[in-house]
Amino acid sequence: MGHAAQLAGDNAVTGFEIKGWCPGALRPMASGDGLVLRIRTRNGRLEPDQARLIAGLAARCGNGLMDLTSRANLQLRGLDHAGHAEAVAALAGIGLIDRDEAAEARRNVILSPFAPVGSAAWRLAEAIAAAMTAPDAPQVPGKFGFAVDTDTLALADTPSDIRLRPSGSGWRIVPDGGDWSLKAADVAEAANRAVDLARWFMQDGVQDGRGRMRDLLRRNPAPPPGAKPLAPPPSSYSVPDTGPGPAPNGWLLGFAFGQITPAQLTAAAALGPLRLTPWRALLIEGARQPLIPGAIMDLDDPLLRIHACTGAPRCPQALADVRGLARALAPRLRAGQSLHVSGCAKGCAYRGAASVTLLAKAPDRFDLIRDGGPNDPAVQGNLSPHRIPL
Ligand code: SF4
After folding, report:
1. How many other CB atoms sit within 10 Å of the CB of residue 192?
2. Distance in Å, CA 52 to ligand 1 centroid
3. How many H helices and E strands in the chain?
4. What are the tens digits of pLDDT across the range 30-60?
5. CATH fold group of domain 3-102+249-285
6. One CATH from 3.40.50.300, 3.40.50.2300, 3.40.50.720, 3.30.413.10 for 302-387
């Protein structure tokens, strides 16, 4: 690969503390194991040919590892600058590259993976993406995003600044953290009102180039015209399982650490079109109990509750083989317990709180943090991997 040495000294070393934006294809992010290129698929769906091409790029241009992200995107890892250029050219050929970095960053729309192709929700997500990549789109800060749901409200727990959900024969547009909403009669009006709500947010919601809807609403601004008190969601809705297992339109597969290999992606693409999900599961449309080597089929598999970064030997910053340790500890996790194992203090894999966070200090030494994240104080230090109390 050789890319790591090329990146040493730039943001590969210092970039982890950068917050407020996500990598894209045109604006990759330097990580410990090279450049991270995030592919924002159109409505979270990949045709089999697109998936096969991406699998080839991951193997040829990167280090062969891909991440399923919590924004329902797919990341290639370990690219050098030449590999990045090759990947961008290939992705442009299949319609997955935006006009420029800013447009790419604003096209932050998650569609429920259970929404049928061509449905009203599908068209609404497309319309918002088109409006947000237009030259006159509100210049929302990085990470500002939309979620377009269906009647099942599968995205109810997916962080998003503006949510859209069906309501009667129309749509309801809900700001994250708000107790009011806007109504729209059809897809076109819903897209317009959602983008107008983003414009309303821009009036007072951005400080130092950053901002989220929830933070703005904590400051109690006057709602925009037409806002009505938020009605509770219908009591009849039932959120479908988010996997692994059967889905309304196919089958959901889990992957340890949200990581998928080119071989797995190719095998999945052989069974049908793919939908990316914010639960880091992969949905194969129309599939029933697909057999993909290495995929997690069991909802109770503890590996689904473990975060672990690339670690040694692929990441030059890594002090330990964290994925090996994570797999060894998985059988000891209790029900509901989560674990984050990090190859160094940067904690790339997960910034949130886990039941137990382990930070490598040496190949066989770890600090332990309870109910916190990588930046919280350790309660035990210098632990041998054989003596870690979960
Ligand atoms: S060891 Fe892990 S946390 Fe540290 S830089 Fe590498 S990938 Fe990130």
Report:
1. 15
2. 28
3. 10, 21
4. 887 789 999 999 999 999 999 999 999 999 9
5. Sulfite Reductase Hemoprotein; domain 2 (3.90.480)
6. 3.30.413.10
